[in-house]
Amino acid sequence: MRDNMTDDSADSLNDVVTQFTSYEDFLDSKITASALYYLEDEELARQLVELGQWGTVLTREEFQSRKVSPSLRNQHRTLASAGKELKDNFLKALAEREENNRNGILTSIIFIRDRNAGVQEVSGYIDYAHRLQTEDFEAYFSGKKRLMPRRSDLSFYNWRTQMSTSHSSPNYEVITDQPSGLVFQNKTDRKVLELNPWAASSDNWSRSEVKSDLYVQVVIYDHKTRSTTLTPYPAQ
Fold it and tell me: Gene Ontology terms, cellular component aspect (predicted)?
């Protein structure tokens, strides 16, 4: 723990991670209405909070390490989608894939394009299995929150500010220097997911366009995990 946070008790820090379902929600709690008004960019405001511009905050690593609690681990026993009345096709598609993404049969990637709270068009790719491990998805399935791409996801792009980020996850390596463009390589079987919509589906992954009333565009890539000794995707 950083020296400037030694005055915080372990109990108070645990209260923070219990109160907020995600690190982004925690950052949002530190953003004032006036700051968001002048910045006109929710993602930029979050970045400034994370950098400590408005006071000391938990780092993402500190938050996530404390977030892995028994309550989150118990979600594997009871699905977050269980018993929910799901009216939108996207939520139904997530519910159909929840159990298999939790038990490792699938590692789905979700592409979402829509407008954020600041009415800016954003898009990105989300590692569904990883998000399930680090968040309580009951709020999404119950309609209290909307699942949106974040700067910490596999890929994120703000079409207004042109801010672009990419981060590998526990399940996927992000590869950006290929002739075909952005690709994701599964870390278990080393299979590569190409995002070209005209690429043919294979025996280990498929692409599904989902019609949703909640988002401008949704695409789900389902990867059937296999453990092999294939060599990594070659650099070119």
Answer: cytoplasm; nucleus
Residue 74 is assigned to a structural domain of this protein: no
**In this structure, are 83 and 164 located in the same domain?**
yes
234 inside domain: no
pTM of the complete model beyond 0.85: no
In total, how many domains does the chain have?
2
Which contiguous run of DSSP H or E holds residue 121?
Answer: strand 121-127
Which 3-state string (H, E, C) describes 52-84? CCCCCCCCHHHHHHHHCCHHHHHHHCCCCCCCC
Phi first, then psi: give them for residue 194, nearest 5 degrees: -95, 140
Does 88 lie in the same domain as 57?
no
